[in-house]
Amino acid sequence: MNNSKLIGSILMITGTMIGAGMLALSIVSAKAGFAVATVTLITMWAVMTITALLTLEVNLAFEEYSNSLGNMAFKILGIHGRTASWFCTLILLYSLTAAYISGNSSLITNIIELAFHIKTPNWLNATIYLLAMGWVVFWSTKCVDYCNRILMILKICLLWVTFTLMLPTVNIANITNNSYDNRCLLSMLPVFLCSFGFHTIIPSLSNYIGRKPRELKLAIICGSSTALIIYLLWLFATMGMIPWSGTHSFTSIMQPNGHILVRDFVKNIYETVDNKWMTVGINGFSNIAMTTSFLGVTLGLFDFLADGFKYSNNRSGRFKTSLLTFIPPLVFALFFPNGFLLALKFAALFATIITIILPTLMAYKLRCNTKLSSPYRVFGGNYLLCIMMTIGIIMLVVILFSLFI
Length: 405
Description:
The protein is an all-alpha fold. It has helices at 3-17, 24-29, 34-59, 69-77, 79-116, 122-139, 141-166, 172-175, 185-195, 202-209, 213-241, 262-273, 276-308, 315-335, 337-345, 347-367, 381-404. The termini are far apart.
């Protein structure tokens, strides 16, 4: 077992999942209360971990660098499977990449303005960020691994500072309050689902580690479990320190439409803790989290496109893949911001298809296929597949209901 690559893979999975969107977990679940949020979060973790293992099962039936989601869907489900996988993957990953480019370019703008008192154009900052981080992805998965390790160490340190300051302010009475409205479960599910989305990086990790079921399975379980623990700590800390009603509460920052803005929520945390290091901890975590998520998302997109267009893994091939990976989201972020923002609105819909429905359907068809076989099979047989497909369909209905009703 290559412990170095295993640790790096675990951190890449965790880094892909834990982004700045973690701040929203408490916001969408505040009405439901800590108990309901915890049960829902653990359930979603179990579902997404199982479907990640199903993705791994299918992935290991294919050779390295010919194992993208698009190729797997085509070989097992035919042209319709490939069309669905390409459409959902490109829309989801391009819109996420565009969002990360926009977020980090704004951060660079603020840093330059504070340090040098110069207002730089947004397109320049976006290009600078993309050249720096895009080069990491272009160079190799190993380069992404080691860059992600450094960022994850910083992110964990900032989370430690944040939790150290927040946990002493937790009021158990807020945690055990059962008077909240549990009908908001529908709004929680899409956010919780996206919080455990890392399936698109599995082919990249399979190419990086090799076709080793034990190591890849361990990386998936450890990576997703680490994210779960951090999410639970965040829910406990935020929902324990901020009451539902009263001064500095969730209701005090609720908008007329019933929504809570992230900036108001974070401001409430600052005012409750009243410590300058709290600002450093949350802001630093959010900014670094965008980059670790960017690396994970774009690595998955890069390998998806490389396999789809059959570009070689040499410098020339990787350069062509880099252009396809980074130019479209950069253009969208700069010239069509409403387009990728609209796509992000439907992110949970695409994520459900990619992370639950397609893996389950492909695993079922693979097990019926006499020409393809995988050295690894997820427990539970067809009963588990029926449960996962049912959950996937329910999630689609819930998300469509929350979007259009």
